[in-house]
Write a structure and sequence with these properties.
The structure is a homodimer of 322-residue chains. Chain A has 322 residues and is of the alpha/beta class. The first copy, chain A, has 13 helices and 7 strands. In chain A, β6, α9 and β7 (223-225) form a beta-alpha-beta unit. In chain A, α2 (16-27) crosses α3 (31-40).
């Protein structure tokens, strides 16, 4: 406990190694990690948390690198948390044209960390949320969350952000179609990256048309054209991010949004924890195996089996009994 | 109960109105719906269940219409369950070039149903699974599940299928990137629809390259080029679907896959049911509100709050206590 206390203190003092250690504990599902988050949680809430989502290959890592540079020039400290397994941040980012990311590895004002995709999405998003809280507690002014977000899989993670930026590239047909069809949630800011592509204007028009049909209350979603590799459009993107933040504060919706986010996080943590518990028990407990056998043999339907499992866990679920 | 019994009997006899009524009950979360599934469940397991996934605009509805025609010519009965809110199946499919779908509405061997996206994905996938079971019990030879599946959001639903078909179109950059990056799971069959597009061959090569890097045990994922509007390639697709089915049966992996699917379904049902219960209680129970207040005021961290909620539910979760 003395160790934990000093780890917490060092983390709160902004010590990078303490932060790295804390995130590893959380990632390893170590009880000390949970205890650490509990201890430092009262000191969270000051960071500006921005989620940056987009398909693999949309160039969001390069864009994040450019954002980091911009934020550093404004003398803000930054933490990047990548949960895109295909991101250069996740892969070391040391070679070729990725060299531009490495400049930040030497800057003490920048903390970069990726989370391995541990298959079980529940486990991953749990750990990610805790890691983001640790970055916040460590006094980082800006926390950038990089997620894949082709669909809504990472929705729990992105839920943690005050501002959500969706990065598209000309040719990323699926995401635009998904936006258009109302299948994907409208983000706060849309970036069209690689904007030197000849189809850029067509795409911008298409997105604008889609947005004009969506219900927009107060905040009008801006479309920012960038060429992240050359840093073009990054300043405008930062302006829009700040404008969105101001909008939230002016409307008093920041606290409302955070309340909703935290509520969703608590729910997600509770359910994913139960799911992991059930999965573990299912592997070990012959009673569970028998239940599944009955389902496989079509003697017991899945919903009734689910109800019985919840009952075994002590959860009363009246709606199961009919 | 007499009513229920006769509804079950009529459904098992293949009565379309009984099937429609049963699905409505399930969709409305009516206890009679759950009871109905429980009653007919022993008679499920005979249908060939195929999941057809792809971004909005990939033409999967048109492809499904062509598949339905093909399967009808082979004198098989078909049920289509669409959970893509942007699908023509979901939107009535009565006008313009959608007329081709309507031919099936008059055919008693075809049953088409869409599920409204009810926001809560948990609730939706629960209802979808139950609806698919009812279609199976009603004696449909083929059950086709249409899902959006840009990402992994519908993963619980697609889990129900024996064979998963991913529909891409030239220009659907995001999905190919997601496959390439290992972010999206490799399906059993890949369709490149709208194959009159000049970039078709480039895309096929790209997919082939991606597949060659993925671990493939036994089954080699075929790439089928189609032009669904003209029915081209549909026969080949059906052949591949049958071949995949045969492969599963020959390897004895069909029962293994179904066991895994059913196990995942039971888990998903248990957790989504708990989540819905928690959400309902959270709205009504002042104790929950206070817990969230504490989290919002940074006095209690989200993970501890989640643990307390599970404890309130009677779930012992030792890993919460540290």
């Amino acid at each position: 406990m003395t160790d934990d206390a000093s780890l917490a203190q060092r983390l709160l003092d902004g010590d990078r190694r303490a932060l790295a250690r804390g995130i590893s504990l959380v990632e390893d599902d170590d009880p000390q990690g949970w205890a650490l988050v509990r201890e430092v949680y009262p000191r969270t809430g000051s960071a500006t948390v921005v989620g940056i989502t987009g398909a693999p290959g949309s160039g969001k890592s390069t864009l994040i690198a450019a954002l980091v540079r911009n934020r550093r020039e404004a003398e803000r400290t930054v933490a990047v948390l990548s949960i895109d397994p295909s991101s250069p941040f996740s892969q070391g980012a040391l070679l070729g044209d990725r060299i531009r990311l490495t400049e930040h590895f030497l800057d003490r004002g920048v903390f970069i960390r990726s989370m391995a995709n541990r298959g079980a999405l529940g486990g991953l998003s749990e750990a990610t949320l805790q890691a983001a809280l640790l970055m916040d507690a460590a006094g980082r002014d800006d926390v950038l969350l990089e997620t894949v977000g082709v669909g809504q899989a990472e929705v729990d993670v992105i839920d943690h952000a005050d501002t959500v930026v969706l990065v598209l590239v000309p040719g990323s047909g699926d995401s635009v179609q998904a936006l258009k069809a109302g299948v994907m949630e409208i983000p706060d800011i849309i970036v069209v990256n690689k904007a030197d592509h000849p189809l850029t204007e067509t795409m911008v028009r298409e997105i604008r048309g889609t947005l004009s049909l969506a219900p927009q209350e107060g905040w009008r979603v801006p479309i920012v054209k960038t060429q992240a590799t050359r840093g073009e459009g990054v300043e405008e993107l930062v302006e829009k991010m700040l404008a969105h933040r101001e909008h939230l504060e002016a409307q008093g919706t920041l606290s409302e949004r955070r309340r909703r986010n935290l509520r969703n996080e608590v729910l997600a943590l509770a359910t994913s924890r139960l799911r992991r518990k059930l999965e573990a028990e299912m592997r070990e407990d012959p009673g569970f195996q028998e239940l599944i056998d009955e389902v496989v043999e079509r003697r017991l339907d899945p919903a009734t089996a689910a109800g019985r499992i919840l009952e075994r866990e002590g959860v009363t679920s009246p709606e199961v009994r009919t």
